[in-house]
Design goal:
- The chain is α+β, with helices and mostly antiparallel strands and about 90 residues long.
- About 35% of the residues lie in helices and about 40% in strands.
- The protein has a 4-stranded antiparallel sheet, with helices on one face.
Length: about 90
C-alpha cells in the first residue's frame, strides 16, 4: 500500500470574503471528496481571505496509481480553480 500526501498552498488574488474563498475552492472537495481513495481537507489558513492550504491524502495499491491520482489533482487545480498555487509539498509514507 502506498500513501501520498499532497499539500497545496493557494493565493486568491482579490478575494474579499471568506464566503468567496470557499466558493472559489469548493471544486476541490466536490471533485475529490467523493473518491474512495482520496481524503481532502482545508488544512491551513482557515481565517484568511486571500490564502488557503489544502491537503490531499491518496491511498493506492501501487506507487504508479498514487502518482497518477496526484497528477490528476494538480491538473484539475491548474486548469479549473481561480487561485494561484503558491506552494506545493508531496510526501510518501
Amino acid at each position: 500500500m502506498h500513501i501520498a500526501i499532497l499539500t497545496l498552498n493557494f493565493h486568491l488574488e482579490g478575494c474579499a470574503s471568506l464566503k468567496e474563498k470557499r466558493q472559489r475552492l469548493s471544486g476541490l472537495r466536490d471533485r475529490f471528496g467523493r473518491q474512495p481513495n482520496v481524503a481532502v481537507c482545508e488544512s491551513g489558513e482557515p481565517d484568511t481571505m486571500q490564502n488557503a492550504q489544502w491537503s490531499f491524502v491518496v491511498v493506492a495499491g501501487t506507487r504508479a496509481i498514487a502518482d497518477k491520482q496526484v497528477a490528476e489533482i494538480e491538473t484539475f487545480v491548474a486548469e479549473s480553480l481561480d487561485a494561484r498555487i503558491s506552494g506545493r509539498e508531496l510526501e510518501y509514507l
